[in-house]
Amino acid sequence: MVSDLLIYNIGTLITSKEIELSNKNLMENIEILTDAYVAIKNGTILLLGEGPYDKNIIDNKTILIDAEKSVVTPGLIDSHTHLVHGGSRENEMFLKAKGATYMDILNAGGGILSTVKATKEATKEELVEKAKISLKKMLAFGVTTIESKSGYGLDLETEIKQLEVNKILANEQPIDIVSTFMGAHAIPKEYKGKEEDFIKKVIKMLPIIKDKNLAEFCDIFCEHGIFSIEQSRKILKEAKKFGFKLKIHADEIESIGGAELAGELETTSSEHLMAISDEGIIALKNNGVIANILPGTSFYLKKEYAPVRKMIDYGVQIALSTDYNPGSCPTENLQLIMQIAALYLNMSPIEVIKAVTINGAKSLNKEKQIGSIEIGKKADLVIFNSKSLEYILYHFGINHTKMVIKNGDIVYNN
Ligand code: IZC
Ligand code: ZN
Hints:
Elements lengths: L4 E14 L11 E12 L2 E7 L12 E4 L4 E4 L1 E3 L11 H8 L4 H6 L4 H10 L2 H17 L2 E7 L6 H15 L5 E9 L10 H17 L5 E6 L6 H13 L3 E6 L7 H8 L3 E4 L5 H9 L3 E4 L1 H7 L6 H7 L3 E3 L13 H11 L4 H7 L2 H5 L18 E4 L4 H6 L6 E6 L2 E5 L1
Parallel strand pairs: 1-4, 1-5, 6-7, 7-8, 8-9, 9-10, 10-11, 11-12, 12-13
Antiparallel strand pairs: 1-2, 2-3, 5-14, 14-15, 15-16
The site of zinc ion has 5 residues, from loops.
């Protein structure tokens, strides 16, 4: 068969296909080819390999791309973002510099609640336009799929508005968007002291969101002072009944057993985990829960980092994401997150790339379609401006992307 597009002269092709290695580190078990090519047909991967390609897979219509010996990876996956929101919170940065904590600001009615106000005030069109600007930046950093949560409405109307924005965006730009309902992101001011009423309200939203087909996942902010373990269990169990797959913001600030709950409910992923306990690590491992680590948040809040080396030693699979949001991590730059992970989490280059490709796909339950360069999978790829993966992690804060291919089309060309 003849390809539509062929990338040749690839120095290092990190396919992210999981393979058997004698090395026991199951965060490094991915295939890496050298002097390679990838052929694409109808938006999917047709063929790949090392050495010269068979001339029968091209004709005079095939688009030929010379990778000039550089690194090529699957399209990057940012599997945890709060993309759709109104406003920004630069004021908090300077309150924090004077000693206020993230929780102090939230308890005073700021933080998430100030973004809730701005999101309620914004029209759907305004939210679409603002999110599009962020998606354009993400694409430039090599991101081809993201997850996007609601949770800045805390009422049915605004939660639906946010999730409808995800749907509109999916048709107006190249990045694929996986939607998550996160009505349990904070307790609205008017429900202080009446938390159980708010939980009932969130549970009532679940079937409506599902009927409208607005979200695949349900997530919750399980944290001391936000939603307790009991409350989180209640909401997530209901969500599962209505057919949602589950995620949980767990042990971000305090260790309250969020990761243990993730294990108990067999959530697809568990997010943050800076304060995870040893029992929590075992619960993730034993139940196949992906640890979705967001080191940009540790960096930005000047908090400790999740104990990733320990998790990897226990055999937990790690994903890395931006957590892009206006409060605790205002950046769309997944490459920066990869660099922080290499520097502060002491992850190896291969572990980092696995965490933003096939493991990002697993944390979205999409590993059969995306996350690796394998025959039949979506042709989502990044060609970097670098001949080594190490260099991409070392030269930080800049964009190393040369070209992004999404569903077989060139969607970014630097
Ligand atoms: O707006 O602060 N942690 N939710 C849980 C966030 C951070 C987003 C925000
Ligand atoms: Zn988050």
